Amino acid sequence: MGKAIPASKLITLFESWAPKHLAYEWDNVGLQVGSLNKPVKKVMVTLDVLENVVNEAIEKNVDLIIAHHPLLFEPLKQVDINHPKGRIIEKLLKHNITVYAAHTNLDIVTGGVSDILMKKLNIDKTDVLIKSETEKLIKLIVYVPETHAANVTSALGDAGAGHIGQYSHCSFQSKGVGAFKALEGTNPFIGEKGEIEKVNEIKLETIIKENQLSSLLAVLKDAHPYEEVAYDLIPLLNNGEKIGAGRIGSLKESMSLGDFCEFVKNKFEVPALRVTGDLESKIKKVALLGGSGKGFIHVAKRMGADVYVTGDMTFHEAQDAWQMGLHVIDPGHHVEKFMRESVKFFLEDKITDLDASVQVIVSKENTEPFQFM
């Protein structure tokens, strides 16, 4: 029978994908309300933490809410329970519900919000639109008895080690002899205390991302039979993946701007959108930034985009894009809602390997403030 998982462990698993350090400095990600020390049996993923969402969480006995948009973005000067945000905080604390937010870190990370939206548009091969940094890579070298090398190699590969381009589970193995002497107070897996033991071992080498380090070391120690695991970490000069906001890529076939607008409406499940430019124009190269991307129209143009898809476009920025010949499509900010299912699938996949009974659900409440008439 499975058991609850500490919220901190769930968040560690989640941050192996979307670490907090990727978030912009102005952002407020991480713990918002409650405690990460509490046991969790039910998680709810949501785009926003509004009062209707909190009421849903209470009704469904949710322990942890993982949201994209932070509940607490600007510093609070008071918690007035006669106002919506104050009532939300009161309800969360009263019902012992913890809230955690992953915002720009989830936008930026590979497989995050912009990648999710690009896949909706059937654009698989993309580049980063606004580069923040390049992933740092580390070579992990660990010494494993031959009898357990396959298990350790598989555990590390399943957890994301050895991912190079379109290949996973990449490693190199060489044979050798390990030697050690177990001292008093130890409980050696092989050999006797006070005796030098020699063991046929495999030297396993693989590549990991810096942001995977803590989670992969935990996996390594769980899978390795030795009481004390011998491993080396070597920083590499190899370039990892580019990290940054937004994506740019090409449609498989060009289409008119008008047809592309209908395509976007259908794929993003929106009843209407705003667009600039000649609807008969042919477009193929698409730049996209989930959420609010009005500040990056010049980047999209410089990267060669025919059209830029983003939310919260304002009048003057739309004019500027129009005048420079960059088509803009604004389907709204709420299209980021598709992150909910992706986060759910990620957590469910990670939880599968644990001796736990944790349910992950997606909020069914509507948080889109606009109606279209």
Automatic annotation (TrEMBL):
Domain of life of the source: Bacteria
Keyword Metal-binding: yes
Coiled coil regions, renumbered to chain: none
Record carries keyword Metal-binding: yes
Gene3D superfamilies linked to this entry: 3.30.70.120, NIF3 (NGG1p interacting factor 3)-like
Keyword entries, A-Z: Metal-binding
PANTHER family recorded: GTP CYCLOHYDROLASE 1 TYPE 2 HOMOLOG, NGG1 INTERACTING FACTOR 3
NCBIfam families named in the record: YbgI_SA1388
Assigned protein family: Belongs to the GTP cyclohydrolase I type 2/NIF3 family.
Record-given protein name: GTP cyclohydrolase 1 type 2 homolog
